[in-house]
């Protein structure tokens, strides 16, 4: 016969024994490029082929330390459910409209396939599918497992070659699974529109119910949606909803025609409204109650080889793996940090407060809070990056840490054998004697003799490790760093996990001890937690366990090492305890239990910090203006509805830290620091001044009054050397004191 439409299609040898087609299809060549079942005329032997079935993408759930859900990640929002968790009416509806002879035929519906092939030959293209539910499932598996654009195109291409492959795989499916199992798999993989993959997600998204509770009109709606889920997506507007309603009614009519429901039941269902609820899909850090911690967890998964060999595999596991991630977040401590910040800083303020809480001895991040919500909506004062963490965990460049870095110079001095009452006389200004005075860790000479680091009026005189720290005396720490070594101080800081928030190398200038490097609260809190843990540094930790979709759990332990001798850490804690009683925090006061810490105020009041700890908890608080801390300093500002002449470490970060710790430790029995080894660190050695009066000399940095300005109109003696962006200018040396 002449013409494509009259070519003979012979479907032979259908083996009905197990309901599986074992056939040969002989198709003469069909004129026109691309219009043959195969490239050349001949006989195609169909045999069952086993299909590799990667599990469909599922939602990953993130939980806090108590097991409560805090976030979800997904590429496709899907919740896989068992056959018994799907309403019978849903199964009936999908079979009625998609493959009404599903339980009667084998891998393919011979009648439907013949009809489709004849139509396609007449049309000169693939115009009719004729696919069974088994074939549709195969197509979805191939599409979901496609790793490249080419593979995705091959899974969707309108060709007889693809159709034959689907048939082979479908025959393999029918040999491997029961009909109920195939239907279950199909209902869990199909896309229904509105971002819902699988019948459970669709039932929740469309109607706010579980798949097991679907009613007749609801089931008919979802069954109608799978044919063209984008054209009938009710989330896109009225036109799409009208199409979906018409499609639902087609399904209802078909169910009545097949005798699956009565005509009266179909008519009643057709009179009901569509009923689309558009239930919001949970997930993403924007939707999380704890967005900054959520961001940290997400980036930790994506960046850490512990959670997968490659970045691609880690992303796939997070967004498609159906994982359950257990984290370190303590909701009570998180609430304590959030309440404390809200009491002092408003979301509408230009300055942003951020705080991280870390458990000593584990590195567990138990809270991450900030004064602004996370997001991109300026009208809601949102901030679009993780202000509590470093750039590797979704953060920005951070803020200069100021005098919190003096602690590392103090530790270096104790490591080298100095005693807590060793000291020397310092002046109101400090000028490096020569360029060779300081050496960085590359052995290069550092130190600008033309630059003077200054203190406030009244601060010169004899200072010891105790009194110099309590008063946060700049000139004392410049000389102390010179004596113990710049590189030694940098090395101490690095041993406690200190690294710049932006990931760049630490700036190793002589003003390192004054905190010229930009930091984030998680990193600083973790460093101070190591002192609380008697020198045991534990890397920041947010994830404790991951359970995969099959129930297998991988547990993660803290990564710890001994960074300091316990006795050195104990002596450091002893000195820093005096900051609350005789130093810069004496105007704020302690928390009713052993605590130690250090204020930090950068040059010109660009940023302010407080970092401190008890034996049970460490925390760091930063405040700065994300528009640019050097351009928008904390001088003459209104924060939290209160006017501040200046903001120092004890003005806002200190009170926030205090309020947080009191609330966070309310139900934790007080622990005590290990007493200082007085034989090793008590008193003084060769640098003694017996007639010194520590009480009289402990107020070099006068505690601030209520308005945030130091009493007596003196400035806090904390001085960094930042450039506008915190990096050295063209001559390689920090500027701006």
TrEMBL record:
<feature type="compositionally biased region" description="Basic and acidic residues">
    <location>
        <begin position="688"/>
        <end position="699"/>
    </location>
</feature>
<keyword id="KW-0328">Glycosyltransferase</keyword>
<dbReference type="GO" id="GO:0006508">
    <property type="term" value="P:proteolysis"/>
</dbReference>
<dbReference type="GO" id="GO:0009252">
    <property type="term" value="P:peptidoglycan biosynthetic process"/>
</dbReference>
<keyword id="KW-0645">Protease</keyword>
<keyword id="KW-0961">Cell wall biogenesis/degradation</keyword>
<dbReference type="InterPro" id="IPR001264">
    <property type="entry name" value="Glyco_trans_51"/>
</dbReference>
<dbReference type="GO" id="GO:0009002">
    <property type="term" value="F:serine-type D-Ala-D-Ala carboxypeptidase activity"/>
</dbReference>
<dbReference type="Pfam" id="PF00905">
    <property type="entry name" value="Transpeptidase"/>
</dbReference>
<dbReference type="GO" id="GO:0008658">
    <property type="term" value="F:penicillin binding"/>
</dbReference>
<dbReference type="InterPro" id="IPR050396">
    <property type="entry name" value="Glycosyltr_51/Transpeptidase"/>
</dbReference>
<keyword id="KW-0378">Hydrolase</keyword>
<feature type="compositionally biased region" description="Basic and acidic residues">
    <location>
        <begin position="706"/>
        <end position="737"/>
    </location>
</feature>
<feature type="domain" description="Penicillin-binding protein transpeptidase">
    <location>
        <begin position="357"/>
        <end position="624"/>
    </location>
</feature>
<keyword id="KW-0511">Multifunctional enzyme</keyword>
<dbReference type="InterPro" id="IPR023346">
    <property type="entry name" value="Lysozyme-like_dom_sf"/>
</dbReference>
<keyword id="KW-0808">Transferase</keyword>
<dbReference type="GO" id="GO:0071555">
    <property type="term" value="P:cell wall organization"/>
</dbReference>
<comment type="similarity">
    <text>In the N-terminal section; belongs to the glycosyltransferase 51 family.</text>
</comment>
<dbReference type="InterPro" id="IPR012338">
    <property type="entry name" value="Beta-lactam/transpept-like"/>
</dbReference>
<keyword id="KW-0133">Cell shape</keyword>
<dbReference type="InterPro" id="IPR001460">
    <property type="entry name" value="PCN-bd_Tpept"/>
</dbReference>
<keyword id="KW-0121">Carboxypeptidase</keyword>
<dbReference type="InterPro" id="IPR036950">
    <property type="entry name" value="PBP_transglycosylase"/>
</dbReference>
<protein>
    <submittedName>
        <fullName>Membrane carboxypeptidase (Penicillin-binding protein)</fullName>
    </submittedName>
</protein>
<dbReference type="GO" id="GO:0008360">
    <property type="term" value="P:regulation of cell shape"/>
</dbReference>
<feature type="region of interest" description="Disordered">
    <location>
        <begin position="685"/>
        <end position="737"/>
    </location>
</feature>
<dbReference type="Pfam" id="PF00912">
    <property type="entry name" value="Transgly"/>
</dbReference>
<keyword id="KW-0573">Peptidoglycan synthesis</keyword>
<feature type="domain" description="Glycosyl transferase family 51">
    <location>
        <begin position="67"/>
        <end position="255"/>
    </location>
</feature>
<comment type="similarity">
    <text>In the C-terminal section; belongs to the transpeptidase family.</text>
</comment>
<dbReference type="GO" id="GO:0008955">
    <property type="term" value="F:peptidoglycan glycosyltransferase activity"/>
</dbReference>
<dbReference type="GO" id="GO:0030288">
    <property type="term" value="C:outer membrane-bounded periplasmic space"/>
</dbReference>
């Amino acid at each position: 016969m002449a013409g494509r439409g009259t070519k003979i299609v012979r479907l032979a040898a259908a083996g009905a024994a197990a309901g599986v087609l074992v056939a040969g299809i002989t198709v003469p060549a069909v004129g026109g490029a691309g219009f043959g079942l195969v490239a050349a005329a001949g006989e195609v032997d169909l045999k069952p082929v086993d299909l590799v079935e990667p599990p469909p993408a599922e939602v990953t759930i993130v939980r806090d330390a108590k097991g409560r859900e805090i976030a979800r990640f997904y590429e496709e929002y899907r919740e896989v459910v068992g056959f018994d968790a799907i309403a019978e009416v849903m199964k009936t509806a999908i079979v009625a409209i998609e493959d009404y002879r599903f339980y009667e035929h084998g891998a393919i519906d011979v009648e439907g396939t013949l009809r489709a092939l004849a139509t396609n030959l007449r049309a000169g293209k693939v115009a009719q599918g004729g696919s069974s539910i088994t074939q549709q499932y195969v197509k979805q598996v191939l599409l979901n497992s496609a790793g490249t654009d080419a593979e995705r195109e091959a899974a969707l291409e309108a060709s007889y070659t693809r159709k034959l492959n689907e048939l082979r795989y479908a025959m393999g499916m029918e040999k491997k699974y029961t009909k109920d199992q195939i239907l279950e798999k199909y209902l869990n993989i199909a896309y229904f529109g509105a971002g819902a993959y699988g019948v459970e997600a669709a039932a929740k998204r469309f109607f706010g119910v579980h798949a097991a509770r679907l009613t007749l009109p609801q089931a008919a709606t979802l069954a109608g949606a799978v044919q063209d889920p984008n054209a009938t997506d009710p989330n896109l507007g009225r036109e799409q909803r009208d199409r979906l309603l018409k499609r639902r009614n087609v399904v209802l009519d078909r169910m009545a025609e097949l005798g699956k429901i009565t005509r009266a039941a179909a008519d009643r269902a057709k009179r009901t409204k569509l009923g689309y609820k558009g239930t919001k899909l949970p997930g993403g850090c924007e939707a999380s109650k704890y967005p900054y911690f959520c961001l940290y967890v997400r980036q930790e998964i994506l960046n850490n080889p512990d959670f997968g060999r490659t970045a691609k595999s880690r992303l796939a596991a997070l967004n498609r793996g159906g994982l359950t991630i257990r984290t370190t977040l303590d909701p009570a401590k998180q609430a304590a940090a959030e309440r404390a910040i809200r009491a002092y800083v408003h979301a509408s303020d230009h300055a942003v407060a951020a705080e991280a809480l870390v458990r000593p001895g584990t590195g567990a991040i138990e809270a991450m809070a900030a004064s602004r919500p996370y997001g991109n909506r300026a009208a809601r004062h949102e901030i679009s990056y993780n202000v509590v963490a470093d750039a590797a965990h979704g953060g920005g460049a951070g803020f200069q840490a100021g005098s919190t870095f003096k602690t590392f110079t103090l530790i270096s001095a104790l490591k080298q054998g100095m005693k807590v009452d060793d000291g020397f006389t310092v002046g109101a200004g400090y000028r490096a004697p020569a360029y060779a005075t300081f050496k960085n860790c590359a052995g290069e000479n550092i130190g600008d003799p033309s630059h003077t680091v200054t203190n406030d009026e009244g601060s010169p005189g004899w200072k010891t490790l105790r009194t110099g720290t309590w008063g946060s005396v700049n000139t004392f720490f410049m000389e102390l760093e010179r004596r113990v070594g710049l590189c030694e101080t940098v090395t101490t800081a690095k041993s406690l996990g200190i690294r710049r928030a932006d990931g760049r190398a630490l700036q190793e200038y002589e003003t390192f001890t004054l905190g010229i490097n930009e930091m984030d609260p998680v990193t600083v809190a973790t460093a101070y937690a190591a002192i609380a843990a008697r020198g045991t540094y534990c890397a920041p930790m947010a994830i404790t366990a991951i359970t995969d979709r099959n129930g297998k759990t991988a547990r993660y332990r803290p990564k710890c090492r001994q960074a300091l001798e316990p006795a050195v850490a104990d002596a450091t804690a002893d000195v820093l305890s005096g900051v609350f009683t005789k130093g810069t925090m004496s105007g704020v006061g302690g928390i009713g239990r052993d605590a130690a810490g250090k204020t930090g105020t950068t040059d010109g009041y660009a940023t302010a910090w407080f970092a401190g700890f008890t034996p049970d908890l460490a925390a760091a608080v930063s405040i700065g203006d994300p528009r640019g801390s050097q351009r928008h300093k904390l001088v003459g500002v209104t924060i939290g509805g209160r006017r501040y002449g200046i903001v120092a470490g004890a003005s806002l970060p200190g009170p926030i830290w205090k309020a947080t710790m009191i609330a966070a430790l309310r139900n934790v029995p007080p622990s005590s620091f290990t007493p200082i080894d007085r034989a090793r660190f008590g008193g003084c050695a060769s640098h003694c001044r017996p007639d010194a009066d520590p009480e009289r000399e402990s107020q070099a940095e006068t505690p601030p009054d209520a308005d945030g300005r130091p009493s007596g109109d003196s400035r806090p003696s904390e001085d960094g050397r930042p450039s506008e962006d915190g990096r050295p200018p063209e001559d390689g040396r920090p500027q701006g004191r």
